[in-house]
Structures are given as structure tokens and as C-alpha cells.
Specification:
By secondary structure, this protein is of the alpha/beta class. The protein has a domain of 172 residues: Periplasmic binding protein-like II (D-Maltodextrin-Binding Protein, domain 2). Helix content is 38%, strand content 17%. Strands 1, 2, 3, 4, 5, 6 and 7 form a seven-stranded mixed sheet that branches. The longest helix is centred in the first third of the chain and has 35 residues. It starts with 20 loop residues before the first helix and ends in a 10-residue tail after the last helix.
Length: 319
């Protein structure tokens, strides 16, 4: 009688030698079975390879598509159409003659600041406020185009440069061009807004300074062509690291005015040495009362409404 021999390969110590599926069956497996085998035995190496491939593709993509941001701008309480948006962004890149393939201007839109709960955009105020504060803290906001209400908020909380001080240093000829368009506003140095809100019987008091924080853009072609019902003001954020680019942006907006005004007529320069410090009290003021009038080359005789400054827009600041 014939004896069957075990043909299983043996190791030197006599124990059975297990053949792996890789050695014996991988070449014979087909379709889903082969895929299942690869997944079961090689999932970790495949996962690591996938992660490395993703990182490599991401680095290459960032390298070849990265654009240097030359300026960060924002529209606050200003709704711009497609033509104006393009003029305020890509038009500037063309003006300074740099490639849009490697450079960009960041234009934030859809930002609204208002304390009027009847305003249609009041519901966006909180999100806009948080975004603006984050951008300022991260030095990702250089120039703001805004209406009067937003201009008051930025000015009173000390977020804007005094343009009568910095523009002569950045570009003397540009300063001479826009000097008639400079707009003054107040910065609140100290007030008792919290005490006044807690107890209405305590009169609101504030110590303020007046500086030239904005430029009226009504004379510029882009803004005048947009047909806004109220003035649009430009301000430069106080902590911007891109002051030269901000000055170039103002020059771009006033480019046609500069070409037309070959001869700049002398005008009374604003007082840049020291701003008048005033003490404001509401003890005897009603809603229709006004603060003392401040003069300006373009706003001489315009009263400053106390009600606009009473609450100091402290809701925009956590300082």
C-alpha cells in the first residue's frame, strides 16, 4: 500500500513553512478578490503614500498658484457693482503695472456696521464686526472705503491714520492733490459710555480729538460714476504694514484728477501739529442739539451731530 507523503515545505527545524498569499496566490487572484487582498495587507502603506502624495500636490499647487497680496481693502456699508468692484481691484494692478498672475488685491465685500435695528443690513453687523476686528489684528486690512456711519465707527475707535500727518511723508504731491478732499472726524480718548448705559441719569461725557481720518472720494471717476447717494470715504488702517501701497492706491483713485490738475492751487493746510482737545457733555443737549462746529476746507460750517458720537460705537471695540 502506497504511503502519501506530506509535501508541505519544512523549515530547518522541521516545522511547516507557511507560504504567503503574496508568494502563491497574488498572481492568481482576479478582480475584487485581488483588490480586497491588497487592501487587507497593504492599507497602511497605501494610506501613507496617499498622504505624502497629497502633501506633494498641495505644495506644488501653492508654489505655482501663489499670488502676492499687494493690498488688502474693504467696502464697509458700500454696495459695489461688478464694474466698480473690478475697478477697485484689478484696475489697481493694471495701474501699477504688475502681473495679476503673481499678484492680487484682496477686496472684502459684504461688510456692514450699523446700530440702527431698522437697517436692512443690521443682522450682518455682528459677523462683520468680528471679521473686521480679526482682519485688523492680523494686519490683513489696509484701506477701507465706507459711508459716514462706518467712518464714524473707525475714527472714534482709533483704527485710522491721520492722513494729514502720514500722506505728506509718503507722497507730498499726492497730499497736495487730495488735501481739499480731506475729511475730519473725532477720536474718543475717554468717555463714560458704560456708566451712561447703566444709568441714564448720568450725563454722557467724552474727551475727544479731531483729526483728518478720511478722504472724500466724490471727485474720483470710479466713485462718481457709481452714482452713490451719499459720500464714500477712504481711510487707511492705523496698523497697516503696507503704507506705500495704500498711498499708491489713493494715487490710482485720483489718477485722472492728477492729470487734470497740472497746477495745484494753494489751499489752507489742516493743522497737523496739535488737534484741539474738547470735553463733551450731554447734560444740556437734546437729540437736535449740535456740538461746536469744526472747520475744514471742504466742510467749513458743517455741524457735528452729537447723537452720532454719543454712544462712541464702543460695540466695535473690545479694548
Amino acid at each position: 500500500m502506497r504511503t502519501l507523503h506530506d509535501e508541505t515545505p519544512k523549515t530547518p527545524d522541521g516545522s511547516p513553512k507557511l507560504q504567503t498569499l503574496h508568494d502563491k496566490n497574488l498572481r492568481t487572484l482576479k478582480g475584487r478578490a485581488k483588490l480586497q487582498y491588497i487592501w487587507d495587507y497593504y492599507k497602511l502603506p497605501l494610506a501613507l503614500f496617499g498622504i505624502l502624495l497629497y502633501v506633494l500636490i498641495y505644495i506644488l499647487y501653492q508654489h505655482f498658484t501663489y499670488k502676492e497680496c499687494v493690498l488688502y481693502t474693504a467696502l464697509v456699508n458700500v454696495n459695489a457693482g461688478e464694474t466698480l468692484t473690478e475697478g477697485l481691484s484689478s484696475g489697481f494692478l493694471d495701474y501699477i503695472n504688475i502681473s495679476p498672475a503673481q499678484n492680487k488685491l484682496e477686496l472684502y465685500t459684504g461688510l456692514y456696521l450699523t446700530d440702527d435695528d431698522r437697517n436692512a443690513y443690521h443682522q450682518y453687523t455682528y459677523a462683520s464686526r468680528m471679521k473686521i476686528l480679526g482682519l485688523i489684528d492680523g494686519e490683513l486690512l489696509d484701506v477701507v472705503l465706507m459711508n459716514q456711519e462706518a467712518f464714524d465707527a473707525f475714527s472714534q475707535n482709533g483704527y485710522l491714520h491721520d492722513l494729514a500727518e502720514i500722506l505728506p511723508q509718503a507722497d507730498e504731491s499726492l497730499y497736495e492733490t487730495v488735501r481739499p478732499d480731506l475729511i475730519a472726524n473725532l477720536i474718543i480718548l475717554e468717555d463714560n459710555a458704560v456708566e451712561h448705559q447703566l444709568d441714564a441719569s448720568i450725563p454722557y461725557e467724552a474727551v475727544t480729538e479731531e483729526h483728518y481720518y478720511g478722504i472724500d472720494l466724490s471727485r474720483t471717476q470710479l466713485i462718481s460714476a457709481a452714482g452713490f447717494a451719499e459720500p464714500v470715504y477712504l481711510g487707511i488702517i492705523a496698523n497697516t504694514p503696507r503704507l506705500d501701497s495704500a498711498a499708491a492706491y489713493i494715487r490710482y483713485l485720483f489718477a485722472e484728477n492728477i492729470e487734470q490738475e497740472r497746477t495745484i492751487f494753494p489751499a489752507r493746510a489742516p493743522d497737523t501739529h496739535a488737534a484741539a482737545i474738547r470735553h463733551i457733555s450731554t447734560a444740556s443737549l437734546s437729540r437736535t442739539d449740535f456740538l461746536p462746529i469744526y472747520s475744514h476746507p471742504r466742510t467749513t460750517g458743517s455741524p457735528v451731530n452729537h447723537d452720532r458720537h454719543k454712544h462712541a460705537w464702543r460695540w466695535i471695540s473690545y479694548r
